[in-house]
């Protein structure tokens, strides 16, 4: 597992594919610099990556050890794997505040799929529900499903103009996808909240 397996996109920052540390062959740590505040991170399997059979990737928020202890604290956020190759995780709500210079560390661990699924099912019900209102009764936030649909719609609208045919098969050049990704990533950096608006 020497090649990158996962990609992370902190809201408003570039994609990260290289782990900061690999404690085990199946465990990866990504230290995300807090150049500007963010509360959500997208974690996804990179193209052509297939996890070992009957495994999934458990996602953790790793915070520094409490005073008097030496072991960092890992909070389970959820998982990705076959059938759910990407997900958006909230790392701001309920996490331990860190000094501005301290990176946010995301841990990704390849574990038995059944164990990951069970831990997701055992999470409190309110963690499964999309946030409906902010602390001050603000506007409703779109669910992960809605955000994913908007990303797909954005990609489809862009790529459809590049489609052609090879025999009887409709195809889209890989360069068109790369161009979409470059523009999409640039827009996220410039306007992190654009997907949250129904445009």
TrEMBL record:
Hikeshi-like N-terminal domain mapped to chain residues: 9-126
Region of interest (Disordered), ranges: 121-141
InterPro entries found in the cross-reference section: Hikeshi-like_C, Hikeshi-like_N, OPI10
Chain ranges of the Hikeshi-like C-terminal domain: 143-197
Superkingdom field: Eukaryota
Coiled-coil portions: none
Signal peptide boundaries: none
Compositional bias segments (type: Polar residues): 127-141
Family according to the record: Belongs to the OPI10 family.
Protein name, as recorded: Hikeshi-like domain-containing protein
Species of origin: Phialemonium thermophilum
